Amino acid sequence: MRFYRDLGLTDFYCRQVEPVAAVDDPKLGRSVAEELAEREGLLQAAIAAAAQSAAETAAQQTNIFGEEPAIKTRKGFSAPPEIAAAVPVEERAAALQLIRDEIGDCTRCALHTGRHSIVFADGSPTARLMFVGEGPGADEDAQGLPFVGRAGQLLNNMIAAMGLKREEVYIANVVKCRPPGNRTPEPEEANTCSPFLFRQIDVVRPQVLVALGATAATYLLGARQPLAGLRGRVHAFRGMSLIVTYHPAFLLRDPRQKKEAWADLQIAMKELGLKAPRQS
Ligand code: SF4
Fold first, then answer.
1. Residues 15, 136 within the same domain
2. Nearest C-alpha to atom 2 of ligand 1 is from which residue?
3. Is residue 164 within 6 Å of ligand 1 at its C-beta?
4. Residues 40 and 99 occupy one common structural domain
5. Which residue minimizes the CA distance to atom 5 of ligand 1?
6. What angle do CA 115, 109, 64 make, to 5 degrees?
7. How does pLDDT run along the chain (280 residues), one tens digit per residue?
8. d(CA 193, ligand 1 centre) in Å
9. Cα(103) to centroid of ligand 1, in Å?
10. 106 lines ligand 1 (CB under 6 A)
């Protein structure tokens, strides 16, 4: 039964059947044995269809690297905008507000239809460290702030492990409106929204940028590459250091990868000249 349930077959019923040798159905013109054989064939076909459906669903939810939702590649990635002129430290908050004002009550992509809030960013406009995620989830959409749900709590812990406070870093996402069902943003959506992210990055101008997950790495670097090949090293990015690591939501699903994520964060700490606080 569990095997069938794993395949998505949940409804079962039993019907009493007379012994094969004793009962043939003259109206149908065939034996009970033939009828049972037909039912067995139908059941096997249903199992095969359910297995194929389950495999297709799994393929949609997991990319070839088994790490993150797949990013559809039918459309290319927009060229990143030119690096903007540096904004004086004391003007960065106002410059970010200008970007937020320009976004307004945005309807530039389809994600606007299902959102409750535009999730612009959180943190210090003069941060030395910036995190970029994929997009808001339900908690973020409700509160209008990035990384405030369970994944956000884990990110807070990661920041604390680096010896920093959340208020000292800057946090934003590739898209600012919640994709329905927390799906991966479509390329059209990410390409439409990401120019605002690039402008935020250019204003904050952090020393180190950490891409959380494959979607953030893909749209920042402008190419779809295996996360495994991007992690564990420093990428030159718009005059700063870019480190790629797992998305906290993925780490919640697979806590065994936290050690790898910590190794990535230690690379970021080295770039920042930080040492991990002593454990009490
Ligand atoms: S995701 Fe970005 S581009 Fe799309 S509607 Fe929201 S703010 Fe506008």
1. no
2. 193
3. no
4. no
5. 112
6. 90
7. 443 443 334 444 445 544 444 444 454 455 555 665 666 666 665 555 554 444 444 433 433 333 555 555 445 677 888 999 999 999 999 999 999 999 999 999 999 999 999 999 999 999 999 999 999 999 999 999 999 999 999 999 999 999 999 999 999 999 999 999 999 999 999 999 999 999 999 999 999 999 999 999 999 999 888 999 999 999 999 999 999 999 999 999 999 999 999 999 999 999 999 987 776 5
8. 5
9. 8
10. yes
CATH number at 222 reads 3.40.470.10
Domain count, the chain: 2
Q: How far is the CA of 159 from the centre of ligand 1 (A)?
A: 27
Same domain, 32 and 164: no
Note the Cα 248 to chain centre separation in Å.
Answer: 9
The verdict on 101 and 29 lying in the same domain is: no
Domain containing 27 equals: 2-61
Nearest atom (ligand 1) to Cα of 106:
8
Terminal C-alpha separation, the chain: 50
Instruction: Let me know if residue 66 belongs to a domain.
Output: no
Is 166 within the bounds of a domain? yes
Spatial CB neighbours of 85, under 8 Å, sequence gap ≥ 6 = none
Q: If DSSP codes are grouped into helix, strand and coil, which group holds residue 136?
A: coil
Angle at 218 between CA 217 and CA 222, to 5 degrees: 115
Residues 34 and 150 in one domain: no
Residue 118 Cα to ligand 1 middle (Å): 8
